[in-house]
## 1
Amino acid sequence: MKRWMTLCAWMMAASLTAVADPLLTPGTGVANDHGGYGTSRDIQFVPRSTETGYGYRSYVTGLGFTVLPWSIPNRESTVYGVRTNLGWGYFANSTGLDTGLFSHSGYCSGLQINVFGNLTECNSDGLHIGLVNVVGQRQRGLQIGLVNYADDLAGVQIGLLNFTAKQCSLPILNIAW
């Protein structure tokens, strides 16, 4: 148990350090390798034109998998098929079946069934089932959860608290077209 607590504390400290001093500086083409032995040096980082600004190649894949915050193949990828989340996971786009604990996408289309919830930054088409479902722009389809939010809704929300940017509908059903 003590080793587990030490590992969790180390991971939390590492994530806070990464937020304060990111490895890659977006838009500058410079990465810091954080030397390890008291030395730190900047490394020139020049992405190829087919890669994202961080230099990761974005893939289109039929299977996506996330463990805690790590996405396989990587977070810039698009999944057309099946996506499984153990913990929290992000992919740029997701189309098809999305299952697990918590899902985060740029755009989503299809069936999302996640225990804790679903977060889609842009538009979403399809069915969302989870404790909390949030769509940053237009939701077309059905949301089922304890709390549901869509900036613009063209469908149905079923839950205890249902919100859109223009209206709030308390218990059970919210329908908008």
## 2
Amino acid sequence: MPIPKISTDEVKVTQFAPHGRVDIAMDGDVLQYTCTGPFNKELFDCMAVTQAAMLRSLERTGPWASIATFVGSAMCPPDGIQRYTELIQTQLPPEQTPVATAFVVGPDIEGGRIMESHFTGIFASIGRPFAVFSTMAEARDWVQPLLDANRAPREPKP
């Protein structure tokens, strides 16, 4: 069965051109984002529409995690960071909210370490488990126990 995919290149939501690109594909219980930057706030608006379309198309149940792999650059201006923050802080139904988010930012990614502190703060503000890794293998190893913990049957409270 082919992996469902969608890209921000398929969406136009503002009169201004998005800078950057995000390709989204579901692989098992992990929604994978390939993020080619640098980015602007218009790109994040396109990403929100793209992600919502992907999640609607999947009609899945059960926990899922997200892993974003950065390509080229992780940089975005302050208004882009603000827009991304607003989108992450938007309350969504549980089935549309990942149990954890990981970013894969290799040492060659422009602005990777600069942006890491911004992203860490954004996810801390909503209490979602978040971490940055250098490789996809590390990110997958980190999200898997969090997925498993959210699948485990809950003990009844006495």
